[in-house]
Amino acid sequence: MSENVVCTGAVNAVKEVWEERIKKHNEDLKREKEFQQKLVRIWEERVSLTKLREKVIKEDGRVILKIEKEEWKTLPSSLLKLNQLQEWQLHRTGLLKIPEFIGRFQNLIVLDLSRNTISEIPRGIGLLTKLQELILSYNKIKTVPRELSHCASLEKLELAVNRDICDLPQELSNLLKLTHLDLSMNHFTTIPLAVLNMPALEWLDMGSNKLEQLPDTIERMQSLHTLWLQRNEITCLPETISNMKNLGTLVLSNNKLQDIPVCMEEMNNLREINVHFYGIYKNTVFW
């Protein structure tokens, strides 16, 4: 009986030793694998950084990252070593997302990522207080974060041809320097309140949306000189449009207008109005 106990104890002891050895061996293999993966990542980052540096140019006194028609679905963290960049121009690269670390590029003045497949604007965009131009046309963006309102230097914003954007956060009316806004070819059914309250806005394109009418409060846009509203469903114009004293160009072709308000004849600065009267004719009139 006691011999069996001793034998069983010896077997268990040997088993524990082997299990411990196997465990240690597996841990060593895991560490080795992790080390190899780390080396691969370091090497890949060095290679990608070298490739990125080759795409950096100086133009008009700016340091620009310029990539076009090359596949860059993601941007590596090694890009952070080029934080002196003042402008990004990445077109037709298949870029899927704006990196979360975008806010660390404090010197950025222009961010042009048009013609990619970006679906989201990260909240970190609001950290770019020097940014003057944000161009994200021809992507797949659906919503715009309120943090964009913190880009106090922004003068130009283009979100055309994203197809599904239907509203903007009211906070964007805090963009006091924004003069140029392109929202064409999206899914807006009305002019957003944020847009109506942008104090410096001079140029607005809301063509090819789903607008059926313009709000009476459109007169708030007193700085506006060019308004593109082509290819919508607009049936009539509010009388208050005549109070837009700086409006010089109004494009209304391919809507459902039957007439335009007589009061518009009093708009002395209106030099060009392009109108397609629904079912009647298409014409351009110079006043």
TrEMBL record:
InterPro entries: Leu-rich_rpt (IPR001611), Leu-rich_rpt_typical-subtyp (IPR003591), LRR_dom_sf (IPR032675), LRR_domain-containing (IPR050216), LRR_R13L4/SHOC2-like (IPR055414). Residues 78-187 form the Disease resistance R13L4/SHOC-2-like LRR domain. Pfam families: LRR_14, LRR_8. SUPFAM superfamilies: L domain-like. SMART domains: LRR_TYP (SM00369). GO terms for cellular component: M band. Keywords: Coiled coil, Cytoplasm, Leucine-rich repeat, Muscle protein, Repeat. It is found in: Cytoplasm, Myofibril, Sarcomere, M line. Component of the sarcomeric M-band which plays a role in myocyte response to biomechanical stress. May regulate expression of other M-band proteins via an SRF-dependent pathway. Important for normal contractile function in heart. This is Leucine-rich repeat-containing protein 39. It comes from Canis lupus dingo. The gene is LRRC39.
